[in-house]
């Protein structure tokens, strides 16, 4: 149930109907669109939504459905239902073409059995009676005319007419040539008068030829005569023509009698064609509005993700602009959303979007929102939008609002969706505010769901403390003094009345006088809201910065874990090598000591010889110590190019060079990408790199470079989401050595473009930014040049 009656007009649903009707191929399809109304049965709504989604799938991804001829079979079936009536040749031809369409459609779906179950249900158990088509085709040809052989009698009549006309033509040609030779005829040839073939004669010669004068020229100098010899033949043709018409009526009557038992089936075929035209029109409208089927639930709730107002979407699409998506959630915990914010900030559009999309879903229409959206079912939809003052009913604007509020409070319940625009306006704010608050409290106690827009501070305060109510505001750029059209849940918004007035240029003395007239408490609340908005923006920027730093820390931790893992894997090999070297050193030392002792014994402990041998032993040990302590001589600087394998000089980490930029080298170390100074790496041969590592790095690197494109499309994303995606792409572009990055953000009001550019200016690697060429997107695309 919708209240009041004009709520559908106020929300824009009537315009939606008009758009859908423009896609219909038949009048019966358009009549069905006029009958669209809100449904409350879950199964019916689900069925209609799935039918539309399946037809959309056919239109976008399958071959064309053979819907070529859609005629009103119902009116023709009703006509032959009465005994003695018959259809004309043209009407039978319409029935024939319509039935051919029906059977072609059924055959189309039979070939795709199981792919479109909800559309197949439209003709489930519908018999295919081809006898009807055969009966009509036996009498009516492809041009919609009766066949000459429709009956033996008709064929004889047509043959007789042809013979009589041929004989009459032969005789009149002979008479006409004879008259010409005698000079009796006027200029011209044989002509038709009153349906009879006549000779043009000069008036003075009309008595020289026997016959009947049918007409004369305006000047009276020429008469048109039918010769006596032809007169009888023409009468015979005329009689045969009457016989032919009577025989055709007889054939059509017999064919109508033959089809009369199939009238119920014809009506079923008519219903199928009507529904197909109707569903097709809904699917075409869904394509126009980029609509999808949301998740349908039986509970009264709404969770719209990236939703857009369909009419606004169509209008802005013509102008090459995009709609800022709406994200809103209405459920048991936050039943009524109280939306505040500046004038022309999008409050009413937000509320109307919720109401219109709810009506569309419950009417079986797909909506322009993400498939992840959840939409429930409401038994009632109440709306108070615009000025409904009535002279006839002696209602002022405020009285009309109060009448609706009375109805809302008395008739609403837990499955009612209410939409109230500019709640409480129309009277003295000192009294309108408290009354609105009391009405809102009463509605909240009845567990209704809905969206309310307001400028009243008392309603914002009430929503902040009442269970089931949730404040929300339309975001506003208080530096540029322009709306962002983004709904932010959880806090009220300022009206920015003085700020907007100041931007417009209202004189300072007028503004100061106005500020002095408002209450201290109201001034404090509005100031707090403005400051809250500014703090919110600063917190957002700080959070983005912290998230960025956190991501870098996470990357470093991952790299550290990779290096640690690599060292753990190679620790055993390093220790084994060290042990072997230590054993070799000990062995050599033992040999040296043993030789020294042996020589001392041989010299029988000669003092000088012993001293000399000790000195040699000391020198050998010192040499070995120097060799161990002396750092390895750095290898001569070799030229490094992309694809070379290198080792970090201060660790055993091995990586492959992706690119070289000035003094920096971009390395692929496992799944990580790292930028290091040129002097920190040393080139190694491929043989020194483990085979498994070479294979892994080569495939990973080639795959990353092959798949990566320095272009990102963030249209339709929220600000934070867009910045997060851009940051990931920018890091990859830098690591892979790309010199530029293309960001597609769309034009719109330039809000997303400004946010992105301000964010990218914080990167030292960003050299400059510029717009794309006007022919290829202009300021809807930002080129980021990396230095």
Automatic annotation (TrEMBL):
The keyword Nuclease applies. Residues 529-630 form a coiled coil. It holds the Pfam family MutS_V. SUPFAM superfamilies: DNA repair protein MutS, domain III, P-loop containing nucleoside triphosphate hydrolases, SMR domain-like. PANTHER family: OS10G0509000 PROTEIN, OS10G0509000 PROTEIN-RELATED. Acts as a ribosome collision sensor, splitting the ribosome into its 2 subunits. Detects stalled/collided 70S ribosomes which it binds and splits by an ATP-hydrolysis driven conformational change. Acts upstream of the ribosome quality control system (RQC), a ribosome-associated complex that mediates the extraction of incompletely synthesized nascent chains from stalled ribosomes and their subsequent degradation. Probably generates substrates for RQC. Homodimer. Binds to stalled ribosomes, contacting rRNA. This is Endonuclease MutS2. The gene is mutS2.
């Amino acid at each position: 149930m919708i209240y009041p009656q004009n709520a559908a007009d106020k929300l824009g649903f009537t315009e939606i109907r008009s758009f859908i009707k423009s896609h219909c191929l038949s009048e019966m399809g358009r009549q069905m669109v006029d009958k669209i109304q809100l449904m409350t049965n879950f199964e019916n709504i689900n069925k209609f939504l799935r039918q539309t989604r399946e037809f959309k799938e056919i239109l976008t991804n399958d071959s064309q459905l053979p819907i070529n001829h859609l005629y009103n079979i119902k009116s023709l079936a009703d006509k032959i239902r009465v005994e003695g009536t018959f259809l004309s040749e043209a009407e039978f031809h319409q029935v024939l073409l319509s039935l051919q369409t029906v059977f072609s459609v059924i055959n189309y779906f039979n070939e795709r059995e199981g792919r479109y179950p909800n559309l197949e249900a439209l003709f489930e158990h519908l018999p295919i009676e081809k006898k009807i088509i055969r009966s009509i085709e036996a009498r009516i040809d492809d041009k919609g005319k009766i066949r000459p052989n429709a009956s033996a009698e008709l064929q004889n009549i047509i043959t007789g007419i042809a013979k009589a006309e041929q004989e009459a033509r032969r005789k009149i040609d002979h008479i006409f040539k004879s008259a010409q030779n005698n000079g009796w005829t006027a200029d011209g040839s044989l002509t038709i008068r009153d349906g009879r073939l006549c000779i043009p004669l000069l008036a003075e010669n009309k008595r020289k030829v026997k016959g009947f004068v049918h007409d004369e020229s305006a000047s009276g100098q020429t008469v048109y005569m039918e010769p006596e010899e032809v007169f009888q033949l023409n009468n015979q043709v005329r009689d045969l023509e009457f016989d032919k018409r009577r025989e055709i009526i007889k054939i059509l009557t017999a064919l109508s009698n033959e089809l009369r038992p199939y009238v119920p089936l014809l009506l079923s075929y008519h219903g199928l064609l009507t529904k197909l035209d109707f569903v097709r029109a809904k699917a075409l409208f869904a394509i126009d509005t980029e609509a999808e089927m949301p998740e349908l639930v039986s509970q009264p709730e709404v969770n719209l993700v990236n939703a857009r107002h369909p009419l606004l979407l169509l209008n802005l699409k013509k102008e090459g602009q995009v709609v800022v998506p709406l994200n809103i959630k209405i459920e048991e915990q936050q039943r009524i959303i109280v939306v505040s914010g500046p004038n022309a900030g999008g409050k009413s559009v937000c509320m109307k979007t919720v109401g219109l999309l709810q009506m569309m879903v419950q009417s079986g229409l797909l909506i322009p929102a993400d498939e992840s959206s959840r939409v429930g079912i409401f038994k009632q939809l109440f709306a108070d939008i615009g000025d409904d003052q009535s002279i006839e009913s002696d209602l002022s604007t405020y009285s009309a609002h109060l009448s609706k509020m009375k109805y809302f409070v008395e008739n609403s319940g837990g499955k009612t969706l209410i939409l109230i625009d500019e709640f409480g306006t129309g009277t003295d704010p000192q009294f309108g505010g408290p009354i609105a608050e009391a009405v809102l409290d009463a509605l909240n106690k009845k567990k209704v769901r809905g969206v309310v827009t307001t400028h009243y501070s008392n309603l914002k305060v009430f929503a902040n403390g009442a269970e089931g109510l949730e404040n929300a505001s339309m975001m506003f750029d208080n530096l540029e003094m322009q709306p962002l059209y983004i709904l932010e849940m959880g806090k009220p918004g300022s009206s920015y009345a003085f700020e907007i007035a100041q931007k417009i240029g209202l004189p300072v003395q007028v503004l100061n006088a106005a500020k002095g007239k408002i209450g201290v408490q109201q001034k404090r609340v509005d100031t707090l809201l403005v400051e809250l908005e500014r703090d919110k923006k600063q917190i957002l920027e700080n959070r983005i910065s912290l998230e960025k730093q956190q991501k870098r820390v996470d990357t470093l931790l991952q790299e550290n874990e990779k290096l640690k893992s690599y060292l753990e894997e190679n620790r055993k090999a390093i220790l084994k090598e060290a042990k072997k070297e230590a054993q070799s050193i000990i062995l050599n030392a033992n040999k040296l000591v043993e030789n020294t002792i042996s020589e001392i014994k041989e010299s029988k402990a000669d003092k000088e010889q012993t001293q000399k041998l000790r000195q040699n032993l000391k020198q050998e040990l010192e040499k070995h110590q120097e060799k161990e302590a002396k750092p390895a001589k750095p290898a001569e600087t070799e030229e490094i190019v992309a694809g070379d394998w290198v080792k970090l000089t201060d660790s055993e980490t091995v990586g492959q060079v992706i690119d070289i930029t000035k003094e920096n080298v971009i390395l692929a170390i496992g799944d990580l990408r790292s930028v290091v100074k040129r002097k920190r790496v040393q080139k190694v041969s491929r043989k020194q790199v483990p085979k498994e590592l070479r294979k892994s790095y080569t495939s990973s690197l080639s795959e990353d470079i092959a798949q990566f494109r320095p272009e990102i499309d963030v249209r339709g994303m929220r600000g934070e989401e867009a910045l997060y995606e851009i940051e990931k792409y920018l890091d990859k572009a830098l690591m892979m050595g790309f010199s530029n990055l293309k960001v597609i953000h769309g034009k719109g009001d330039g809000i997303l473009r400004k946010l992105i550019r301000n964010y990218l200016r914080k990167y030292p690697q960003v050299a400059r930014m510029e717009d794309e060429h006007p022919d290829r997107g202009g300021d809807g695309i930002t080129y980021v040049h990396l230095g």
